[in-house]
Specification:
Layout: H1 7-14, H2 18-25, H3 40-52, H4 57-66, H5 73-82, E1 102-114, E2 117-128, E3 134-139, H6 144-158, E4 164-167, E5 174-176, E6 183-184, H7 186-195, E7 198-201, H8 211-224, H9 233-248, E8 252-253, E9 258-259, H10 260-267, E10 283-288, E11 294-297, E12 300-303, E13 312-317, E14 321-326, E15 329-335, E16 344-345, H11 356-367, H12 373-383, H13 392-404, H14 407-419, H15 425-440
Parallel strand pairs: 1-4, 4-7, 12-16
Antiparallel strand pairs: 1-2, 2-3, 5-6, 8-9, 10-13, 11-12, 13-14, 14-15
Helix pairs in contact: 1-2, 3-4, 11-13, 12-14, 14-15
Length: 449
């Protein structure tokens, strides 16, 4: 450099980094040369320590230090590589798919803001392996019911299906086993067969087998969710579907040299067409109408006509609705409450809620007796206008008196109270007792003693 050569030229000539050349030029301390290779004794000690540490280099360093052999961690790992104590990392391969050959499906929990609250929602995604066309939806939870709903909506979005769908070993779809030994739930197998494809589970620990769907989840979290809020799950799914069309599938893919939507036009003729009649997605439930006139589905309650209280009904749970049948006849239809707990949906016609004036009329009807209706009607009419409101408490008390005492003394006391304008029910009861005393009690006079 003193001769006019540049730092870059000296670095290239000596095959050293520019930092090393700069350090030497400044006269600073040089890094010590790496130690020579290990001796046979050190190799044997390393092998024994590495075996005892079960392949953990950090623990092997501690064991060697206890034996008096002090090595830096970088030196130890370099010697481990030189001695080939670890199997070399296998070369990463790549999967190539023909159009219509495969699609991949997976789920991932995401934190989303719904109605001002941050909740955990299950993000379900499906991608065509060749064209990378993506379909995403969100659910409060992901069971086999939601899985069938999602797969049907994905098939409609793709307007066809690939012959094979690769998934992980989730218990939602897999009944037992893993990988090649996986046994899928019969209802899921039948559902997939109806749409025209079959499932395949990748080997345990080989999530790279469905890498086409793994990467989009990160894209959803970093591109779609930030800065967005949603009113409910319907709003969330509408927005994510629009994002799939306008952003995810419209973006040019480097591996394809075109957008997923353009590649989909090439793949579309190779997809299996959907059947003319698509399989319905529903769950059949048996319920008993509770004393309040409701049936419960997924912690939410739906009203049923009062006449069915205590009776068994059949509930059909659809993705967007709840249908209630009794003896084969529909008796109630409700929108399904999604993303709620302990919610309630009531059809006004199912549960009658009488007004105070209606309850007052019912009490007056119960007060009427053959032969005494006129007296009681006049007395009750004036009594209910004495207190505030409709006099429900006073009418209930009058009804109790009617049911407690004999008919003749009760009507006689009411007639007497009406004549003198007496509407204090405590004093009315005293009048009733006076009329009753002669009939039920023997009153002794002084002459009888």
């Amino acid at each position: 450099m003193a001769q006019g050569h540049s730092l870059r030229a000296v670095s290239r000539l000596l095959k050293l980094s520019r930092n090393s050349v700069r350090r030497v030029a400044r006269g600073g301390p040089q890094r010590p040369a790496p130690p020579e290779s290990y001796s046979p004794a050190q190799l044997e000690a390393m092998r024994q320590a590495f075996t005892r540490a079960q392949g953990n280099a950090s623990r092997a360093q501690q064991l060697l230090t206890d034996q008096g052999l002090r090595l830096s961690y970088s030196t130890l790992t370099r010697w481990i590589r030189q001695a080939q104590m670890r199997a070399p990392t296998p070369r990463a391969g790549a999967y190539e798919f023909a159009p219509g050959e495969e699609m991949q499906h997976d789920t991932s929990p995401h934190r989303v803001s719904i109605a001002g609250r941050t909740v955990t929602a299950q993000c379900a995604g499906l991608v065509l392996a060749y064209s990378r066309r993506l379909f995403v939806q969100y659910y409060p939870r992901f069971t086999r019911f939601e899985a069938k709903q999602f797969l049907l909506e994905a098939a409609r979005f793709m307007d066809g299906v690939a012959r094979r769908c690769v998934i992980d070993n989730t218990s939602v779809l897999v009944a037992s086993g893993v990988g090649r030994e996986a046994v899928f739930a019969p209802e899921i197998v039948a559902f997939a067969r109806t749409l025209g494809f079959e499932f395949m589970a990748h080997g345990l620990g080989h999530s790279d087998r469905k890498a086409r769907i793994e990467r989009p989840f990160y894209f959803v979290q970093t591109n779609f969710l930030p800065g967005r809020e949603f009113a409910d799950f319907d709003d969330l799914n509408r927005q994510v579907l629009a994002w799939c069309r306008d952003v995810a599938n419209a973006t040019t893919k480097r591996a394809l040299g075109m957008s997923a939507e353009a590649a989909y036009l090439i793949e579309k003729p190779h997809l299996a067409p959907l059947p003319a009649a698509l399989p319905p997605v529903y769950e059949l439930l048996e319920r008993v109408v509770d004393l309040n006139g409701y049936v419960s589905v997924d912690t939410n309650r739906y009203s049923v006509p009062e006449r069915l209280v205590g009776q068994a009904v059949t509930v059909y749970k659809y993705p967007a609705q709840i249908h209630v049948h009794h003896r084969g006849q529909p008796v109630a239809t409700h929108p399904r409450l999604i993303g709620q707990r302990d919610g309630r949906h009531v059809v006004p016609e199912h549960h009658s809620s009488p007004t105070r004036s209606q309850r007052s009329t019912r009490l007056e009807e119960q007060l009427r007796l053959p032969g005494g209706e006129a007296v009681l009607t006049r007395y009750a009419e004036q009594l209910k206008h004495r207190p505030r409101g409709h006099g429900l408490r006073a009418l209930k008390r009058l009804l109790e008196l009617q049911r407690t005492y004999p008919r003749e003394p009760f009507l006689a006391a009411v007639e007497q109270a009406l004549q003198f304008g007496l509407f204090d029910l405590g004093r009315l009861e005293t009048l009733i007792l006076r009329h009753v005393a002669g009939d039920f009690f023997v009153l002794h006079t002084d002459d009888d003693v």
